[in-house]
Amino acid sequence: MKKLKEYILSTIGVAIVAFGLEYFFFPLDIAAGGVSGLALAINQLIDINPSVLVFIFNFILFALAFFLIGGSFGAKSIYATIMMSVIMWVFESFFEPKAITDNLFLACVFGSAVLALGTAITFYQDASTGGTSIIAKIINKYFHLPIGQGLLLADCTVTLLAIYSFGIEKGLFGLLSATLIGILVDKFIAGLNPVKQVFIITNKEKLVVDFINNDIDRGCTILTGKGGYTKEDMTIVYTVLTSKQFITLKQFIKNKNPEAFLTVSESTEALGKGFADY
């Protein structure tokens, strides 16, 4: 059941990516790096649907990866790569996609957000859509260039080709979109499993721990500390909660242990019992 859920979510993710490409980027010739941007630029030179070009380029890249770096790519990545080409082909063949907006700036911003969301959902299932990440891994193995720099090099090459195909203005919008997608993907991934780390310094350890364990149904860890100024021994309760659970705990502390000292910080992910699986 877990595997099925991962494949369903991967399909949703690549469908969102395909939608962003077909309804925001491709109609306005915005090549935001990657294989999709390369396909769009090449489409200006040879009359082949971008979906077909994406499939061909990814097939070539996966084949190169297999022979040059051992092909350490999971079944989910291969599945996601194929599904994205299939969904793009469905859009192009049956829906005749047209730009949602003719404003380049709006298409750049909102298209980047849509692509980043779909990419984040796909990445979160431990899958990817191939593309320039494969090129980056090949460059890393043979030229010892960090993967991040390899990705940047590959995407910049696509952007230069886009400038040649569509002009400087659209090429720069493509570069801006690639940058926005890179930033937003991390933000969306962090938002898929948001939790809060909470430290409570309290003199009512049992009261607080019992509430966390029994009322909120969460675990906690009891630490011992010593006041830097008072030199007094103290108890510190550490726990990880969802935002809703934290609000419940904060209200309880306010009512039952107002002298407690509480700190909270955002955590981008929590894995293990009670949270997401590894």
The proportion of strand residues reads 5-15%
Q: What overall form do the CA principal axes indicate?
A: elongated
Fraction of helical residues: 55-70%
Residue-averaged pLDDT: 85
Q: Give the number of domains.
A: 2
Kindly report the spatial arrangement of strands forming the biggest sheet.
Answer: 2-3-1-4
Low-confidence stretches: none
Rg (CA only):
24 Å
How would you characterize the overall build of this protein?
The protein is 64% helix and 11% strand. It is α+β, with helices and mostly antiparallel strands. The protein has two domains: 2-192, no CATH class; 195-267, Alpha-Beta Plaits, CATH 3.30.70. A four-stranded antiparallel β-sheet has the order 2-3-1-4. A hairpin with a 6-residue loop joins β2 (221-226) and β3. α2 crosses α3, α2 packs parallel to α7 (147-166) and α5 runs parallel beside α8. It starts with a helix and ends in an 11-residue tail after the last strand.
Question: What is this entry, summarized?
Answer:
The protein has 278 residues and is α+β, with helices and mostly antiparallel strands.
